[in-house]
């Protein structure tokens, strides 16, 4: 029988939303070993993969992102209401002690349901400029946890903001360069350029590297590339390097759970400036 308190973490759709939540979940387990942590996420495969891998419970929500096209509003509202009801049931059944929104549209229904239920609630805002969901939820929570002090100006004075940084997983404190080189099959005698567009990849970065890397590799044989493309562009990027004769110097990976070791293996990183990525880099 569960003897500890239950915490609901709400959000998903990208690693940028989920990874800080996973860090929080592990911190809760460390502070309260009997704690139960449940993630209320989107129904994307990525969410199920990341949450189950860490050993936490997951409840996928039917919620969808808000659409600008009025013809899609009925679908949005139906999914929203169904998700609020689902979250309300989860809060009641688990006797949740608190709900933490992790950002993005999937955070909305559980935080709103927590407000209706009188349950303690807060949101995590790692982005410098809060997104639409967090701006909406900020008036409905008891605290907004910021990564950057500069973000405070985007909220009204009535919103309780606390600058705490962005939670990162313990793996980043224990990352090892040699382990990273070995994990990705890299040459320890060469310097390594890591290129990443975060969990979903970035097509503009991928296409730019497909053009630039072959020329660079011909001029600098002492460098190698670890390119995290996202699953969508993995095959196309690998084929581009093969056609350009640069396949031997480029390791292409669609997605990795071992980002800490990838960063540890790198001498230089080219990346999107996502909030979680910046926290992991620093």
Description:
Helix 1 (15-31) runs parallel beside helix 2, helix 3 crosses helix 4 (108-117) and helix 6 (177-183) packs across helix 9. Strand 1, helix 1 and strand 2 form a beta-alpha-beta unit. The model has no long low-confidence stretch (mean pLDDT 94). The protein is of the alpha/beta class and 282 residues long. It has two domains: 6-167, Rossmann fold, CATH 3.40.50.2000; 172-281, 3-Layer(aba) Sandwich (Rossmann fold). It is elongated. The protein has ten helices and eleven strands.
Descriptive keywords:
282 residues, 2 domains, Rossmann fold, four-stranded parallel β-sheet, elongated, alpha/beta, single chain, seven-stranded parallel β-sheet
In short:
The protein is α/β, with parallel strands linked by helices and about 280 residues long. It has helices at about 15-30, 45-55, 75-95, 110-115, 130-135, 175-185, 205-220, 235-245, 260-265, 275-280; strands spanning about 5-10, 35-40, 55-60, 100, 120-125, 145, 160-165, 190-195, 225-230, 250-255, 270. It is about 40% helix and about 20% strand.
For the record, the count of structural domains works out to: 2
| Biggest β-sheet description | 7 strands, parallel
Give the proportion of residues in helices: 25-40%
Q: What are the secondary-structure elements, in order, as H or E?
A: EHEHEHEHEHEEHEHEHEHEH
CATH homologous superfamily designation of the largest domain: Glycogen Phosphorylase B
Estimated share of beta-strand residues: 15-25%
| CATH architecture type of the largest domain | 3-Layer(aba) Sandwich
Across the major sheet, the strand order is 3-2-1-4-5-6-7
Shape: elongated
Structural class: alpha/beta
Query: What does the average pLDDT come to?
Result: 94
Assign the CATH topology of the largest domain: Rossmann fold
